[in-house]
Q: What sequence folds into this?
């Protein structure tokens, strides 16, 4: 068993390296974003990618879908998009005998890797259509439940909320995203490479390197990674410190935070920490792993109050303060 | 063959535990030292403040060490870390990313996961790469700095205390010395008072005896022989007392290693001029607070004129003695046995006195008895008068050599001087004791039968004045050294001879 386990752990790292190398063909930089996306994949959860238009959010997800041997669906969220457009609907069909019947027409949600592009452009009603699928890997249409094929993963992109024509995601919807990832603006060198790859005759071919089975196998290993009590305790204290009414809350938290992170945030911290440890070649979760995944796991789960919103408080600053205040 | 990961990990953990125990002991010792040094400084401050004198006690030092050790143990117990905390600290410090602590937790709790063995193996490998000193180094903390500071402070205090005790007195020592001085002063005062009391008692007894004798003298029923016998017995008593005093003085002088001392002599009255006699009168007036009895307040010149009369009386006494020499043969032989004790008291060579001088001595003794009856033989007052005389006429140090070893110059002055100074009888008696001679001066300030006042009034007045003078008396400067040495010598023997002295 240990030898097999070592091989499995090695395969995880190998797969990650492969994904990174494949994505690097088309994606410049964004290493942290790619790592976190891979983490979400291994944790069997979903990610919300936020960034201004033009930073390659959609490209990353589309490229990932090509690398992963998964059924890929893309949903372009628009204000007039309806839930049925996502989930699917029953349509009337007529057989050869002329009798009519309803047949469920599966929506794009019935894929394995779902790209919900510009998710905040749709109305909250439409956004909520993803709730059940993201939480329970199934959808219910006209009273009939349809299970989604694993591995199921939603990668949503959104523009910053303050931009026009956007609808903020409801908290319940946000909480179902494992990570909220931010696409950083490329630096000078990265921009140079982007120009080279996109404005010249750059030929690339993405290979499908990881199949669904491999992903599921990796997912089964992640949950077995040991984590020490003091590391769990640290993660708990981090989550608790994000609550403004907590004794260990930081000054900024008390001032700008309306609600703290939910237990799903803590789950995200631990699971993501385990993946982080495995990707680092270790068999245990460390404090550093927790800190690495704290921002993407918590930033969308902490809700700013009016003052925080109006003052434009960056959630990452609050999380940094929480991490600095909570003793490891 | 490589040991299993669990055994290897267990071995590494055991090393760490041993190292941890050593460090904990060092910390306890460090805390003990800190507390003990702090207590030492506290004791020093308390001692300097003279609140208590604790540092002299060895048991207190041991007690301090015990307290320090107990406090350090208690502190160590309260601040003890769990071993897992130590491992977490090692993980953080050596950036082991919680490998060791997680492995130890799973190893200790016996949780079995698919990753357990891998994790323990990984942790053991990391531990094997590191030495125990790397994992648990001895840190130089602020406590070590404080220890160094306290050691320096204690050293400085010890040195300052040592140096100050070498060259100057501490407050405690000063207090001790003051206490000792006070005790010795009290002891000396008590001794003086005791001596005075004894002397007063003795003088009272002599006064009573003299009074008794005076009554007997007035008693016509007793014979002359009986009278002389009684006088002689009394004289023997007095001279016995003189002998005792001389012996005591000789002992004290020997103890003080004084071989020679100046002897103040009284100037001869017959050689005094009128001016000097007037001065003498003024001195007497001053000594007696201008209350000289009429018997004394005569013209001193007139007193001088009495000299021939006294001479004549002396001759009469001689003749009288010669007339009765035969009939008093028995008494004379008895006298011969006793007289040497009153005059020479066993000296190889007495004064060379004749019987004439012996009889004269009796008369003088009578005068002395009368003097005692008037309450006059007060040595302190005499010293006062001596001082005045010395101031006025200059002292004539005698040539008395080492006590009792040579004849004094008594012969030169005793006979004539006493004879001429009627009323102010002065006699130097040479008293020998075991070869030691001392000069004892006994003088009288009054003359027999010349006073116009009642005798009782005179005695009362004299006593009152004398007591007043005694109260005011101060020890002469030139005797202070002897007195001090005397009391020091008494003090040294006080424990052994307390009963005997008292």
A:
């Amino acid at each position: 068993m240990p030898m097999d386990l070592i091989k499995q752990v090695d395969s995880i790292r190998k797969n990650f390296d492969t994904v990174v190398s494949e994505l690097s063909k088309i994606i410049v930089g964004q290493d942290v974003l790619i790592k976190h996306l891979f983490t979400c994949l291994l944790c069997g959860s979903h990610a919300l990618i936020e960034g201004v238009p033009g930073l390659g959010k959609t490209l990353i997800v589309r490229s990932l879908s090509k690398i992963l041997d998964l059924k890929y669906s893309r949903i372009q969220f628009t204000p007039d998009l309806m839930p049925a457009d996502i989930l699917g609907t029953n349509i009337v069909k007529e057989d050869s005998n002329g009798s009519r019947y309803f047949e469920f027409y599966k929506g794009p949600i019935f894929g394995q890797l779902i790209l919900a592009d510009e998710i905040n452009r749709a109305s909250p009603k439409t956004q909520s259509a993803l709730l059940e699928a993201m939480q329970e890997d199934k959808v219910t249409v006209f009273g009939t439940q349809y299970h989604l094929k694993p591995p199921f993963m939603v990668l949503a992109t959104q523009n910053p909320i303050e931009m026009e024509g956007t609808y903020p995601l409801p908290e319940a919807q946000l909480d179902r995203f494992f990570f909220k990832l931010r696409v950083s603006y490329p630096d000078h060198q990265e921009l140079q490479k982007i120009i080279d790859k996109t404005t010249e005759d750059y030929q690339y071919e993405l290979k499908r390197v990881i199949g669904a089975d491999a992903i599921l196998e990796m997912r089964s290993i992640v949950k077995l990674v040991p984590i020490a009590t003091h590391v769990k305790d640290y993660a708990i204290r981090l989550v608790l410190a994000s609550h403004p009414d907590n004794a260990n809350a930081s000054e900024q938290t008390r001032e700008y935070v309306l609600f703290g992170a939910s237990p799903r945030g803590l789950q995200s911290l631990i699971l993501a920490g385990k993946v982080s440890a495995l990707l680092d070649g270790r068999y245990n979760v460390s404090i550093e792993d927790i800190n690495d995944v704290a921002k993407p796991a918590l930033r969308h789960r902490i809700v700013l109050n009016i003052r925080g919103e109006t003052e434009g408080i960056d959630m990452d600053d609050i999380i940094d303060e929480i991490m600095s205040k909570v003793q490891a | 063959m490589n040991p299993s990961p669990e055994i290897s990990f267990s071995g590494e953990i055991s090393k760490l535990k041993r190292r941890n125990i050593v460090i904990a002991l060092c910390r306890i010792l460090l805390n003990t030292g800190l507390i003990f040094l702090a207590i030492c400084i506290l004791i020093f401050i308390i001692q300097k403040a003279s609140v208590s004198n604790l540092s002299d006690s060895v048991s207190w030092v041991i007690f301090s060490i015990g307290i320090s050790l107990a406090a350090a143990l208690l502190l160590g117990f309260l601040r003890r870390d769990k071993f897992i905390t130590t491992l977490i600290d090692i993980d953080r410090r050596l950036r082991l990313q919680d490998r060791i602590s997680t492995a130890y937790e799973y190893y200790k709790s016996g949780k079995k996961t698919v990753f357990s063995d891998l994790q323990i193996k990984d942790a053991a490998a990391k531990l094997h790469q590191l030495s125990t000193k790397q994992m648990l180094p001895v840190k130089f903390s602020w406590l070590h700095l404080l220890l160094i500071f306290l050691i320096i402070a204690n050293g400085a205090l010890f040195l300052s205390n040592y140096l100050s005790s070498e060259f100057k007195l501490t407050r405690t020592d000063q207090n001790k010395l003051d206490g000792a001085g006070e005790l010795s002063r009290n002891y000396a005062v008590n001794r003086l008072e005791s001596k005075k009391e004894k002397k007063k008692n003795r003088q009272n007894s002599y006064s009573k005896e003299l009074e008794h004798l005076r009554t007997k003298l007035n008693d016509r029923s007793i014979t002359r022989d009986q009278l002389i016998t009684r006088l002689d017995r009394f004289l023997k008593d007095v001279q016995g007392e003189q002998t005792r005093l001389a012996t005591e003085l000789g002992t004290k002088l020997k103890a003080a290693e004084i071989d020679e001392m100046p002897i103040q002599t009284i100037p001869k009255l017959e050689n005094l001029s009128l001016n000097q006699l007037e001065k003498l009168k003024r001195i007497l007036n001053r000594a007696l607070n201008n209350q000289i009895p009429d018997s004394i307040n005569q013209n001193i010149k007139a007193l001088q004129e009495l000299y021939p009369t006294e001479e004549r009386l002396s001759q009469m006494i001689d003749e009288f003695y010669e007339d009765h020499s035969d009939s008093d043969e028995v008494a004379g032989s008895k006298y011969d046995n006793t007289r040497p004790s009153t005059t020479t008291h066993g000296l190889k060579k007495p004064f060379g006195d004749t019987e004439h001088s012996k009889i004269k001595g009796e008369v003088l003794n009578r005068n002395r008895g009368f003097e005692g009856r008037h309450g006059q033989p007060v040595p302190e007052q005499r010293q006062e008068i001596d001082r005045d005389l010395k101031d006025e006429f200059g002292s004539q140090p005698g040539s008395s050599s080492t006590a009792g070893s040579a004849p004094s110059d008594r012969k030169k002055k005793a006979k004539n001087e006493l004879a001429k100074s009627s009323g102010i009888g002065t006699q130097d008696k040479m008293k020998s004791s075991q070869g030691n001679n001392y000069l004892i001066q006994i003088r009288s300030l009054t003359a027999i039968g010349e006073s116009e006042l009642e005798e009782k009034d005179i005695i009362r007045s004299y006593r009152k004045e004398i007591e007043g003078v005694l109260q005011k008396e101060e020890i002469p400067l030139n005797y202070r050294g002897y007195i001090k040495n005397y009391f020091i010598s008494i003090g040294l023997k006080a424990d052994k001879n307390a009963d005997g002295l008292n």
